[in-house]
Amino acid sequence: MTTDQEIKEAVRQKYSEIATQDKATNQSSCCGSGGCSTEVYNIMSDDYTALEGYQSDADLGLGCGLPTRYAKIKKGDTVIDLGSGAGNDCFVARAETGETGRVIGIDFTPAMINLARQNAEKLGYVNVEFRQGDIEQMPVTSGIADVIVSNCVLNLVPNKAGVLREIYRVLKPGGHFSISDVVLVGQLPEELRHDAEMYAGCISGAIQRQDYLGLIAEAGFTQVTVQKEKPITIPHDILSRYMNAEAIEAFGSGDTGIYSVTVYAEKPAVSSCCGPDCCS
């Protein structure tokens, strides 16, 4: 794959397959679809079951964190979930924002949107909706969201800077995000970086940790904070598809690390001061 559009299409196809499978099948297959590992999602995903609003039918085991736990959602907030999948993070966010709030899930895979809408209808939630669209061009108006969450999605997007600009546009002044994602410390082997399957599985699309945090700051966000961080180990049965035993040993003993991080940041509030001492 050489173009952003080819990457997006590979991701769309992969997650369309995932949407038609149950959670058990997803967790026993490579990146949710196929047959190359029995561990990949078990080592990336966190346990949602203790969170209020959790719905097992909407949990496909595809995340790498618990962004809604750290998102500081208040009653009445408008929350947007990027890459909403079957709706699990939206339903957890809905438990936080309550009936007076609003939750919008955005996903560019039609099969996921259909699945999420079915789940919302079964639950009878009238203040949770799902919109099909590209998170590089979100189908929402500017300044609408109090909080944005996302779980292991930005690493799937080639133009991460573009998504962060969109997040900034969509958040209200003073709004914030909490995003779980995969980042790197050190360089992945070439064999992993250029494989479509590994991209769809959230590994090949990951960028350097310092670059990730730098893009957030460059987009204009403040109070950038890593709320949680944990290492991720790629199972041996996946690595063996790409590298020989010597290369695998070198990779495991090297300086490269793959991490799940949950990052918080704020869009600056508009100052209400217009006096001579604070406005130029």
What do these coordinates show?
The protein has 280 residues and is of the alpha/beta class. It has helices at residues 4-19, 23-27, 40-44, 67-70, 88-97, 110-123, 160-170, 190-193, 196-200, 209-218, 236-239, 245-253, and strands at 78-82, 102-107, 128-132, 145-151, 171-185, 207-208, 222-232, 257-266. Strands 1, 2, 3, 4, 5, 6, 7 and 8 form an eight-stranded mixed beta sheet that branches. Helix 5 links the parallel strand 1 and strand 2. The longest helix is centred in the N-terminal third of the chain and has 16 residues, at 4-19. Mean pLDDT is 82; it is low at 27-42 and 272-277.
In short:
The protein is α/β, with parallel strands linked by helices and 280 residues long. The protein contains 12 helices and 8 strands.
